[in-house]
Structures are given as C-alpha cells and as structure tokens.
Amino acid sequence: MTWKTLDDMDLAGKIVLTRVDINVPVQDGVVTDTTRIERIVPTITDILSKGGTPVMLAHFGRPKGKYVPEMSLRVTLPALEAALGRAVTFIEKPDRATLEAAPDGSVILIENTRFTAMEEANDPKMAGFLASLGDIYCNDAFSAAHRAHASTEGVARLLPSCAGRLMQAELQALEAALGSPARPVAAVVGGAKVSSKLALLGNLVEKVDHLIIGGGMANTFLAAQGLPVGTSLAEHDLTDTARAILAKAETTGCTVHLPRDIVVAREFAAHAPHQILPADQCPEDAMILDAGPETVAALSALFATCKTLIWNGPLGAFELAPFNAATNKAAQVAADLTRAGGLISVAGGGDTVAALNQAGVAGDFTYISTAGGAFLEWMEGKTLPGVAALQG
After folding, report:
1. Could you tell me which of 95, 113, 149, 297 has the fewest CB atoms within 10 Å of its CB?
2. Topology of domain 181-379, per CATH?
3. Higher pLDDT, 374 or 91
C-alpha cells in the first residue's frame, strides 16, 4: 500500500482537514459511549504537536441532506473536550479566513457534513469548497472509507492527503491479516445468515488456509451436506450456494471447518434446557444454538497451528447463556495464543466486538476493528473509495 501517514507530511502552520468518525450514541443530549472519540485522540494530538491546526470533518446520524437540530455535532463537544483535554471550537459555517484566524493550538469541529445532500452525492462543488478550507487532508475514519462521499473521497483528491493514526493502524492490521499474512491463516466467519456474507466467503476461500463457519450460517452448510437441522435458523434456499462455496474451497486448497458437535434446545431463550449431540443428530423439533465442546477442542488445536487469525461473527447465539460457550472459549484460546506471541489476531464487525467484549478478551487480540461495513467490504476484497483516494 502506498498511502502516506502523518509522518510524511509537513504540518507546521498548516490547516489540516481531518475526517473523523464521531458518530457516537447519544441519549438525552449526552454521549453514552466515547470509544470512537477516544480513538481519534492520537491523530489530533499528533497534528497539534507538529504545528498544524486540526479541523475535524464528521457526519452524525442520517439527516438526509437537511439541517436537523437533533443531529448537530455540537452534542459531541463535551466528550471531545474531555478526551482531548482542551477546548474545541465549533463552527457551523466555516470559511478560510475564520480558520486562519484561529489561535495556535486550536482544535476545530465543523458542523455535520451530511446537513447538505452534496456530501453523500460526492458533489465536486462540496469537495472543492472543503479543499479551499485547508492545506492538507487527513482521513482518520476508516469506518466511513467504504463510502465515496465529498468528505471521504472527493476532497482527498484535491489536497495533499494522508492517513491518520487510527486509519493507519486499521490498514496495517488488515494488510497483516489478508494482504501479506503470516501463514497458515484461519478465518472464523459466523453470524446468522449466509446471504449477508456470500462475497466474504467467496473471497476468503481464495485467501485463507482454514475457513471456520459458525453460527446460523453453519446450519445452512450442514443442511447442504444433507444433515438434519430441525427447526434451526437456516437458509435452505441457499444450500446450492453453500455447496458451491465448499467446492470452490476444494479447488483453492482451503479447508472448511463446520461444527463436529452441536448444542440444541427447543426454545430460543437463555438457559433453555439443552443437550450436546453429534452434528448429524439434530432432532426434528430442536434448534442448533451453539457449537459443542468437541468442536471447540478441534478449533483450539487448529488455532495453535496457525500464524494469523481473522474473526468475524460469533459461533453461536452468544447473547444467550449458555449458548455463548463456544464463542467465549474459542476466543479465549485465540487471545492466549496472541498474548504468547504466536498468533496475529484481527477481528471486526459489530456482533464480533460485542462477543469478544463479553468473553473478556477484546484487549488481547492484536487488533479489533469497530468499522463494521468498511471492515466487511475490505474482507470481501472490495476497493474502499476513501482508501483508494489516499493512494492517488
């Protein structure tokens, strides 16, 4: 990858347009989770230390191109100031003169970029206007990099551009996981539906040595092999697709791992009566809610032979105890191997982050991406406009 970082730019005396993702949850006018805000602090701090003036561009919610008072970025100011340890100047309608007049050491936040329809349309006029405000463009919002918007793609092509620290860390982690990884490489792909991850599965069987399929997706693959899945969540109309993925894996040398044993119950509820059975013995009136201990033991042994692990999605109904056991135990093994220095582990996606937090191991993985859609599209092998624009 040929993108530049903050280390490659002379920021002294420069206005640095900095695209960040501070689309944070808010309740009663207060930010309830400051994770995204905390993750941009290194970039803002670095720009200041190099003598630049960071001017943050960000979206908030989906105002659909109109001014919506409840979606003003003003609500993030207290959390931003607390995280940065300094005042943040909020500007609704920016102009170059105002930004140039800001005292040295200022941190500036511009109002929600989506308050105009030109943002999501990637209108050249808006890109040009944004470019007129700054000297350098820094993208620190990997989570918005899959969208070709004026503030993520258009302006990047008009100014000297670089990746911020969070973007840099994300790209380096993903390059280590899929670009030029240490082998063998294993990928865990779980979640409810095969249909939502067809492109991901198709790309991974060409890139990884081992593909572990879990969650509701595994049920579809078991059904595709003629095994009973009872009343389990499964996409029976996609069994042909599942078989095609398995066939493709055979041609690429990728080994696909499905549950060897299963945990079944008659109701989808926490602590529902359940039993552990071989994968080919699901009763007609039961549903598969997790992988069993034999499967976890096999995965643990497999992880120990691998150098790189990519994780997207839980292995079972992780939100319901005890059907979180396979996800928790496998994640703990991956975390132990990572801590010991034998495994590079990269995980991403909303449910994945929640599951790893629940297992208490999120801090032990090499890298956890909170990017969601951008992480998935990267894993699918797609070009992300916001990243491509930095490589120009």
Report:
1. 95
2. Rossmann fold (3.40.50)
3. 91
Q: pLDDT class for 38, splitting at 50, 70, 90?
A: very high
Q: Is the pLDDT of residue 350 over 80?
A: no
- Provide the greatest CA pair distance for the chain: 72
Instruction: Return the beta strands (E) in the chain as ranges.
Output: 15-19, 26-27, 30-31, 53-57, 89-91, 108-110, 136-139, 161-163, 185-189, 210-213, 255-257, 261-265, 274-278, 287-291, 308-312, 344-348, 367-369
Among candidate residues 36, 165, 207, 329, the one labeled active-site is 36
This prediction has a pTM of 0.88
36 is an active site residue: yes
- Topology of domain 6-164, per CATH? Rossmann fold (3.40.50)
Question: Would residue 193 show up in a list of annotated catalytic residues for this protein?
Answer: yes
Would the pLDDT of 1 be above 70? no
For the question of residue 86 being annotated catalytic, the response is no
Q: Is 230 a catalytic residue?
A: no
Q: Per the residue annotation, which of 307, 373, 381, 382 is the catalytic one?
A: 373
Q: Tell me which of 105, 350, 360, 363 is the catalytic residue.
A: 350
Q: Which of 14, 50, 74, 193 is catalytic?
A: 193
What does the domain layout of the chain look like in residue ranges?
6-164, 181-379
Does residue 153 surpass a pLDDT of 80? yes
Q: What integer pLDDT is reported at residue 392 of this predicted model? A: 62
- In this chain, the answer to whether the domains covering 6-164 and 181-379 adopt an identical fold is yes
